[in-house]
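re: that chain from earlier
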Amino acid sequence: MEWKQMPVGPVQANAGLLWNEKNEALLIDPGAEGGRIKRKIEKLELKPIAILLTHAHFDHIGAVDLMRETYKIPVYIHQYEEKWLSDASLNGSKLFPVVENVEGKPADHLIDREGEMTIGSFTFEVLETPGHSPGSVSFYFKEAAIVFSGDALFAGSIGRTDLPGGNQKQLLDSIHNRLLELPEQTIVASGHGPVTTIEQEMVGNPFLNGFSL
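^ sequence. v structure.
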């Protein structure tokens, strides 16, 4: 299993691709620059089969409809953010004058629980990691030893909690009880910035130091 991230859009959110030996691919958080993402998919000769969304803030969903229509694939999002894809006030695009309002189509499938999920030949674990937003989830691929954490956990930082539905205590609980329970060598592919590992964040993340266990 292979993977790649590419920063897209005005706030450089990471769009993710993860694919198998058959070149079937999952597209994670296509936030903007759909044409550029499409060119990368074509260059790698991938066949996308689904779009996974860690959450529905505008910088992670801006190219969803283009990717869905181009490849005729379904979109998955947590049920708590079911309405966010089509509501610029909820997804935050209305709050930022530097971006156009993002108002897309509803998701095809709603995630209503954490645990194992299978899409095509991919089997992975959905971890509910709210706090940055109510329906934030992380996708853990054990075989590839990687978790796509969205905006829950970053290299040396954590997600902001000052947007609607944000809750810092809930976010810290999510990180501690879900993400930090993963094997220490697990790669953390965050929604912004460079990759890190669970071990690096356990040891050196100043936002997690001193969090009561």
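Residues 67 and 191 are 18 Å apart (CA to CA).
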